[in-house]
Amino acid sequence: MRSTPRRHALRGLFARFVALVLGAAVGAGMIVGLQLPLQGHAAQVRATIDTRETAIPPSAPLEWPDVGSAALIIPSLGVRESWHDQVVPIASLTKMMTAYVTLQKLPLGLGQTGPCLTITTADVVTYEQLTGEGESSAYVTEGENLCEIDLLNGLLVHSASNYAVLLADLVAGNTQNFVALMNETAHRLGLHDTHYADVSGFSPQSVSTAVDQGELAVALMKSPLVRAIVDQSSVTLPEAGTVNSFTPYVGTDNVIGVKSGRTAQAGGCDVMAMTFIQGTTTQTLYAVVLGQEGGDLLGPAGDAALALAHSALSTTFPRYPTRVRVLVRGSVGWARSRATFQVDVTFAIKWADLRRPLPVTLSMKRLTGPIRREEIVGWLVIHAPTPRRIALVARGGAAPPTLWQRIL
Question: At what angle do helices 94-105 and 175-188 cross, to 10 degrees?
């Protein structure tokens, strides 16, 4: 059947009506799209962070040594200062970590002896080898019984390297496993410039800094047993008999330890603990010197540490010797519309809490809609011992791009 002219006209009208409706819908959608912000498109952050540390000097100069490096730590005053601090061999100061790891694995109190071992033929051979190489050691005989307290006495007072090996065997089965424990412990204590290659420090690859060794001494001397051991000018061992301390000035001038050491590569090294009266209480300062030269090496090291300690006692330290300024400038928003922010904060921090450059980070909100003036857009986080979280506030408004802007 053929279509009539009337039917053709109706079909044409219907087609034009559908096209008109569809065109209106598309047009309305484009208009709305041009006006609404594009959701799901996150704002971008551009920022610069500047941290500056300003040291407030003590009231009088400290007497630093002429050579090598040094550090001064006074925990009760928050003092932690250093001079030419660098990573160098540390000789028998290594034995402080040997003692620390031992007491972490085999805790021992005053009056206790701890586990014991029997000296073997191999232990005697080790003694003879170490003595032949020039390492300080304590005489042992086959069948001799030595307990943990004996080994710690000989290690810290007479710097017996063969006792360090015996402690490693007692704690970890062998020196290799024990050295691994030493390095793990150093990392846990935050001594990031310290690395151990042996248990005695005879190896020049056992290295650290004056500051790290001072921090280790502070941790080690928290043990009443250690304080009692290192304060001895001599100690009597089962077979070796009475042997003297190698730590200079112990028992004089309020010096109570801690450890000294010397090798050709390390020079003379000394970690000196000295007591002093602060108010009505007795406190301890730690003077550390590394790389000293001349004489028997230990004498110059002890003299340099003593001079540094005495100069510290004649110095008045401010309670907060360092001020840190954190300046943040930045913007947040989109390419064509951005809101700026700025934070400038200064605060005091103790030297003892400033072991590494102060970690500062930005924590930003995910922003997909318009940013209003004075809206919080993120936070400045200062990871100090007492963390601080400071709001970042937009100085002006910013809108995300429209669909039309994205098209263009």
Answer: 90
